[in-house]
Input
Amino acid sequence: MDAKSPNPPHGSRLRIFLADDHPIVLSGMKMLVAEDPELELVGEATDGPKALRRAIELRPDVAVFDLSMPGMNGIDVTEKYLEALPKARVLVLSVQEDGAYLRRLLKMGVGGYILKRSATDELIRGIHAVAAGGLYLDPAIAGRAIGRGVQQVSIDSETSPISELSTRELEVLRLASVGHSNKVISAKLQVGSKSVETYKARAMDKLGFTNRVELIRFALSMGWLESAEP
Output
């Protein structure tokens, strides 16, 4: 097959399952998925119980669950789905911008959280990131979810997992954990982009992290992701 062909072989496409109780939203998501030649829609649902049952049956590469569905809300669907299939990859779609929802879902093991108002721009990027084993947070809520500043986190205790990090490494790691790019971090801290990458790499190495998912879990334990301000 020509490497430039817009349509990859059926077996190589990512299998996607969509669940949302709003027909217009569901239709829009289906169109977005259909436009990506690397994705294949394998199932859909408009209520919680059906979403849970069908997702477990189909075992898609990525399941996209609306947070608010009749019969069973998206949080319960996600929790039961991940209990049945611990290695499953889930992307949550929601109108909720409260950081509490985000923290709860991340602790469950979801791979992504996207706001419905951003779905047109973020859904496909989120699906690909989650399918690759990464973690994708809607930029709007990630930025607002920054919690306590570095100065409020103790790094003096010998028992602290961050006791060996420098203040600058800790600042970079905290900003990176909530989704800021190297360019943004560079501007915020007034250091070069290459320096930001170096600080981040050193911090990740000292903590033994190999991917962004581990960093997010750590950020949660440190309280860096706080509820968004009203």
Remarks:
- DSSP finds ten helices and six strands in the chain.
- Residues 17 and 117 are 20 Å apart (CA to CA).
